[in-house]
Amino acid sequence: MDDSALALVLGASAAAAVGLWAWRRWHPVSFWYGVGFPLRAVLVYLTWHHVASGCKLTRSRRRWRWTLDAVPLAGAAARSASTVVHKRRVRRVDVERSPRLGLLRPTRLGWRMRLRLHDGQVPADYARAAEGIAHAWRVHSVRVVDVKPGKVTLWATLRDSLTDVRVIPETGELLTVRPGLLENGHDWVIDFRTMPHWLNAGATQSGKSNLANAVIKGLAPQPVALVGFDLKGGVEFTPYAPRLSALATNREESVGLLGDLVGEVAKRMAVCRAYGARNVWTLPEDLRPTPIVVLVDEVAELFLMADKSEKEEIAKTGTALLRLAQLGRAFAVYLIISGQRIGSDLGPGVTALRAQLSGRVCHRVNDPETANMTLGDLDPASLVTARAIPAETPGVCVVAGQDGTWHRARSVYVTEEETEQAAREYAHLAPSWAELTGGGPVPTDLPDLPDLPEAA
After folding, report:
1. φ/ψ (deg, to 5) at 443
2. What is the distance between the alpha carbons of residues 142 and 183, in angstroms, rounded to a whole number?
3. Rounded average pLDDT over 146-170
4. Helix H segments across 328-379?
5. How far from 1 is each of 6, 7, 9, 17, 408, CA to CA, in Å?
6. Nearest Cα to 322, choosing from 143, 453, 167, 158?
7. What is the pLDDT of residue 340?
8. Are 356 and 314 in contact (CB under 8 A)?
9. For residue 321, which of 251, 274, 402, 425 has the smallest C-alpha distance?
């Protein structure tokens, strides 16, 4: 090859390398789908047997295999390395078989693939091997995301998408907010009409209050009423008072406000019964009441008892919250219950309330009991993940929501100034409490709930 041809080849190679670098730098998504994923798929298929063997996911099966005993040279070499002298063309031997790998499907941050389980295997075997598979494939994480009879789906993620979260909380859809991002790169969306009640647990500086800011900012431009219970004396929600229809800052105010909310639910129930509607969303539009989103900060303060004189007040509070949780969904009353400490030692009211809160958000917590109360009745792996959240990643949490699975997520950082600005800008959308409740008589035929057992 002469010098001109060599220079042409080197120039073309350099131009191709620069082009690939620029493609990956300026349009990484299309580069991943066009170049990165095909190369990764080839690597996964070629190395899967070795990876499965190293992670102890293979099984030995007896199979008939041809031998070389009848071939003069090869047979002699085989006999020299073995004491077996039987000249058989076919012999049963142990063969190591890896799980059957399905078609790899790309995602924005990695890929998904379905595997067929060997006889006797369970999805937990793959959950235990996930870390080893992730190291073998040089990816950030591998998780079991779907389970069907005899099959599991593994989801591989190349990088942690939660290091930098930039989303807008407002969605433009009624009772829907976008507080952050899931680890699979999809938006974390809270739809109150699908998942009406949420439990938000987290220690100080874990991101719990920031999630509340994102929810308030996302709901502020919507025609909904926001009601706050701030048991820190009002320091959390008072700056957002222009957008709140009501705010309680101590237990005495909370008891009265909860009573009003229960009465409002009873009124809406009576209207639905009069029109033969199962919920407020099937009422005529001109009769449909304003949705109410109730935000409770430091729920433990509602249940802490200094002496027996507070016992009756706590019982009223717990019963009212439980009524709202059980009856509120059909009548457009939704709850977000937040707290640093949520444990069974706070009394049976907390345990009963927790059972009605289908949506779960667990930030970094200080004690295992709070994590157990938040996620303990879900996948045990979610509990392990929640306990491993580092203190230097505020906003990172484990979310169990409307799709029936759990995810690592992170709320977008929303400053107090941004939330205050949204509260002032949309203050005209906040109905007054008198306007919201209508000032009419409260029906007395609200269904009775069983009394909560007394705390020890």
Report:
1. -60, 145
2. 11
3. 87
4. 348-356, 368-375
5. 6, 10, 10, 22, 56
6. 453
7. 86
8. no
9. 251
Terminal Cα-to-Cα distance of the chain (whole angstroms): 91
Length of the chain: 456
Where would I find the H helices in 228-344? Answer: 251-274, 300-303, 311-327
For the record, the structure tokens of 359 come out as 């949506």
* Per-residue pLDDT at 123 exceeds 50: yes
Helix, strand or coil for residue 319?
A: helix
360 vs 353: CA distance, rounded Å:
13
Q: Which of 71-80, 268-277, 369-378 has the lowest mean pLDDT?
A: 71-80
Q: How far is CA 83 from CA 24, 65, 71, 89, 190, in A?
A: 57, 19, 17, 16, 69
What single-letter DSSP state applies at residue 339?
E
Q: How is the beta sheet containing 225-230 ordered, strand by strand?
A: 187-191, 176-182, 406-411, 396-400, 359-362, 197-201, 333-339, 292-297, 225-230, 244-248
Distance, CA of 380 to CA of 388 (rounded, Å): 13
pLDDT tens-digit map of 144-155: 887 788 899 998
Expressed in percent and rounded to 5, the helix, strand and coil fractions of the chain are 45, 20, 35
**Token output for 105:** 């499907």
pLDDT of residue 453: 44
Token pair for residue 71? 């071939």
